[in-house]
Amino acid sequence: MDSLPYLVPSSHPDSDDKIPRDPPMCLRMMNPPASNGFGEVLYNVVLALPALLSLLFLLTRLRLSVRKLLQSRSHIMRTYYSFLWVICVLNLCWCLLEMQQARNHDKETAWNVMSLVTRFGLVLLEVSVVVFLSQGYLVSGWDALLRTLLFSGIFATADALVKAIYIFGFGIPLFTTQDDAGDWHKWGFWLLHNLFFAAVYVVILTLPYTRWRDRLPARPSFYRYVMILFLLNGFEGFGSLLLGFGASFGYCVYGFAGFAYYALYPPLLYTTFLSDFLREEDMQMEEAYYAEMKDAGYFDGDWE
What we know:
Shape: globular
Strand content: under 5%
Keywords: Membrane, Transmembrane, Transmembrane helix
Distance between the termini: 64 Å
Transmembrane segments: 41-59, 80-97, 117-138, 150-175, 187-210, 222-247, 253-275
Protein name: Transmembrane protein adipocyte-associated 1
Family: Belongs to the UPF0359 family.
Structural class: mainly alpha
Number of helices: 10
Main location: membrane
Number of strands: 0
């Protein structure tokens, strides 16, 4: 899962040969005209709200999360928590830059670069989760972390490099939305990309029925995570297939899947892998126990 084509600016307004005067309905919904009306305000709110809510949620739990992580020796959890912050900040920066790009098309290069950086971070997280769990759910320590980051970093770098070649070398607008249904150069790339990730998640879903089932966690939340990502990749791949054949309805399918991925992945990662680890129940119990003992007078002698 990798593109954010659902709320992006169209090509330069001078490109009349590429943007028809009456684009498909789903394309108009994904790419409203730059204006100061209600449509643009709603567009900006929908675009930025998921990233902003994710950041606000992390901020409300920052103190307790940092305390828990400092007390813990889990390098993996510290790394994932740090990555989650980076991704949320990048998503918000991407949204702000996209809003400027919708008005000022000379920032298209900067917007493409920010899109590549943001997607690099998300692919790195996705792949690192799979690589880490493939080493065994109970592994820990620097060795497992370094192996995870090395492999996922190489994969995410290669993925970003291929996209950069497509965009800046071949001039194929992977991250911009225009009326380009039927362009297999673009939609064929996204179809193969989504099919690859979907196939990886199908393999993970079948592992519990093989002899390698003990290498993965038995928690239902992990398989919900894999199933959701499989479905999102499947829907986005289906949208790419429709657009490759020239069906404009594919913009609706592809745009919805892309928006859902962008909005859901940070909270999905948090609830699946970090929420239980960072929960504050133990701290609250200790504080409540201390308060009860203090009210009962157990610590009165300490002040004499």
